[in-house]
Specification:
By secondary structure, the protein is of the alpha+beta class. The protein contains three helices and seven strands, in the order βαβββαβαββ.
Length: about 150
């Protein structure tokens, strides 16, 4: 399994990394999950991006958003893995790397909008569900928080 996670700011992404990351997100979220939404929401420009790349393919990625962009706390979003490596731990490796990076930044907590079917997975990272389930892009989501200290 590939496991080297690269974390870069928007400005440091290569055009190949950006293309591969966007291609993966669109393939999974828009085509597989059939969600019509604006992926280019402006938040990527303010984010750091975690990815596992090999031979021009993005196998898994996530974006790390600073406080004030999505929530008052740091946030992790757009967590996704390529269909060819699903259930092989790539998403978990990316999440662990994001959480470690956030700890190194001195973050106290991280908030996510989790697809509800993944609540149990996020609990393994220390996330706790908050509030009621809601629809985001017609998919059930639940807000979750993880205290890092």
């Amino acid at each position: 399994m590939l496991s080297e996670v690269i974390i870069k700011s928007w400005d440091d992404l290569s055009t190949l990394e950006l293309y591969a990351m966007i291609q993966l997100r669109e393939t999974v979220f828009m085509v597989e999950q059939q969600c019509a939404y604006l992926d280019a929401d402006g938040k990527d420009l303010k984010s750091h991006h975690a990815m596992i790349m090999s031979d021009g393919i993005c196998w898994a990625c996530a974006r790390i958003l600073p406080p004030g962009v999505s929530y008052d706390e740091w946030s992790i979003g757009r967590v996704v893995s390529h269909e060819k490596v699903r259930r092989q731990g790539y998403g978990k490796v990316v999440m662990k790397a994001c959480l470690e990076w956030l700890r190194n930044q001195g973050a106290n907590a991280v908030r996510i909008s989790a697809q509800s079917y993944l609540i149990e997975l996020y609990k393994t990272f220390g996330f706790v569900a908050e509030g009621e389930e809601y629809l985001e892009d017609n998919i059930p989501h639940t807000e979750m928080i993880c205290k890092l200290i």
